[in-house]
Amino acid sequence: MEEDKFNVTPWEVTGKIDYEKLIQQFGTQKISKEILDELLEISKGKLHVMLRRNIFFSHRDLNLVLDDYKQGRGFFLYTGRAPSLGMHIGHLIPFLFTKWLQDVFGVNVYIEITDDEKFMRNPDYTLKQTEEWSYENILDIIAVGFDPNKTFIFKDTEYIKNIYPLVTSIARKLNFSQVKATFGFDSSSNIGILFYPAIQIVPTMFERRRCLIPAAIDQDPYWRLQRDIAESLGYFKAAEIHSKFLPPLASSDGKMSSSIPESAVYLSDPPKTVEKKIMKYAFSGGQATTELQRKLGADLKVDVPYQWLYYIFENDDDAMDKITKEYSAGKMLTGEVKAILANKVNQFLEEHREKREKGADSYSKFLYDGELAKKMWDKIHS
Ligand code: TYM
To answer: Whose CA is nearest to atom 30 of ligand 1?
Structure first.
């Protein structure tokens, strides 16, 4: 039988992803039992559900980050978002997890909004659009609950003047064949996007400490470049903690992506839409008839509603175990699991939207006048 093919790049994720193979291909490390034990201890027994379930599954230098923390050298967190019309649930995964890390370690978080990347990669978008989306997406990010005095959210087109000197030092270290090989650029790629990797790398050098980046593993190519050049500029190689991809509704392959709207649930979807999408499109690993389902049970590996519960929506391990056992044994039917999921998603979104509304007041704190933001605007990175 031909092996399943998959492809993971910052701009495309397709196929049935074999995460074990990806670790080998990318040269990253599995998150070991020792690391989990350390995190369990530091978090006083409250390991994040995405660590307990191996959703964050791979890393680079996370052990060194923990050493730095224990020995008082500290570290900082960095993550980001390329703004688009609407954020979907998958986009929240790294932010939810980053917030947990900030709570546990009490460290600074830098969040890059790459309006430049979005604009340069898409000939159809205007800068005005990316500006509006940035604002809307930032409200969704703020709703996650970051500390406004220890978090700096910045838009590239706005903060560029403070980072440009350091960007030039990074850009001079990266040659065309490196970025071409890493991202698959060709001679039709616009020169802005060839230069862009230097801009995504720069926040890894915002402090003279180790930077830890929580993100899905699609962003890893940037960090490989960063790790090639960081020490020659007097900074640390970036450390990362990588997540798997929340699958799209209609198939367990690839990642949830805004390019197939019916296959994503957006943070702004009203309850009826959520219900309809899940009931109609969510790919089921259940059997074709009730009778067969009762006899054979569901294939959980391909069942999207099950996976969504596992990734993000059912945090209670006992409740999850029960669904796992009963659904795979045919005691539960697809319709029941879908209904549980639709309920959970709607509850989650309702709470999210409340927090979003409340958080809107702190927009300027995160971007301009919170403690960390103020410091960052006073600083020219060179
Ligand atoms: P973007 O906007 O494509 O994605 C934002 C973050 O969401 C993750 N992600 C997902 N995670 C789980 N399941 C999914 N289905 C899913 N889809 C997307 C991405 O890995 C990312 O962490 N170039 C970046 C913006 C950026 C950035 C960064 C991201 C700038 N600096 C530093 C991470 C860390 C981008 O286009 O992200």
So the answer is: 80
Cβ of 130 closer than 6 Å to ligand 1, yes or no, is no
Looking up tokens 């998958």, which residue turns up?
90
Average per-residue pLDDT for the chain: 96
Angle formed by the axes of helices 317-328 and 334-359, nearest 10°: 150
271-310 per-position pLDDT tens digit: 999 999 999 999 999 999 999 999 999 999 999 999 999 9
For ligand 1, what atom is nearest to the CA of residue 83?
Answer: 2
Q: Indicate if the alpha-carbon torsion angle 104, 78, 124, 367 is positive or negative.
A: positive
The predicted structure's pLDDT at residue 4 = 63
Does the CB atom of residue 80 touch ligand 1 within 6 A?
Answer: yes
b/e burial code for range 58-73 (CB count within 10 A of at least 16 → b)? bbbbbbbbbebbeeee
Q: Is the CB of 81 under 6 A from ligand 1?
A: yes
Task: Name the residue with the closest Cα to ligand 1, atom 28.
Answer: 80
pLDDT in tens, 25-54: 999 999 999 999 999 999 999 999 999 999
pLDDT in tens, 75-127: 999 999 999 999 999 999 999 999 999 999 999 999 999 999 999 999 999 99
Distance between Cα 71 and ligand 1 center (Å): 31
Q: What is the number of the ligand 1 atom nearest to the C-alpha of 256?
A: 15
What does pTM read for this prediction?
0.97
For residues 318-334, b (16+ Cβ closer than 10 Å) or e, as one string?
eebeebbebbbebebbb
Ligand 1 geometric centre to CA of 91 (Å): 6
